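We give the entry.
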Amino acid sequence: MTELDKICTVLDKLTLDALTLMEEEIQIKLNVENAMCGGETHLAKSRYILGQNSVSSLQLPTENSPDFDAVTTVVGEDDEELFGQKARTLEVVKNEEQIDPVRWFGYLVPQDLYHSQSMFKQALQWIIRAVNVQTRLIETCGKIEQLKELKKELLVAK
């Protein structure tokens, strides 16, 4: 097996990997859309049940509110440097000491508000997964481009 055949075989495998990653990314984005729509629907139901002013931006913290930290934050870990760019992997870090943001809307809130919160949390998980898949896809496409250049050089050298 010649060097050119090896490069072509690796290119084929990387191209299939890229197509698989594209399909996965599309599926994840559909899941994000479904989770967001579900969260918005449950939020609208909560607003209908409690009244239009009970679930609105008036209940959100303002500049004069006491300081608070986010319940969930997303952090990126630098992976190895590939093709002149640092690859990052995102993950969720939970802050257990925080008050549940649903409490901003009262203590006796409808279940739909909790369902909405869980749908938005699920959407966040899907978004993080989509970013990680997209990062892998970019890395794979970079490898493909490098191998194409190498293949081109080998063909010119012959």
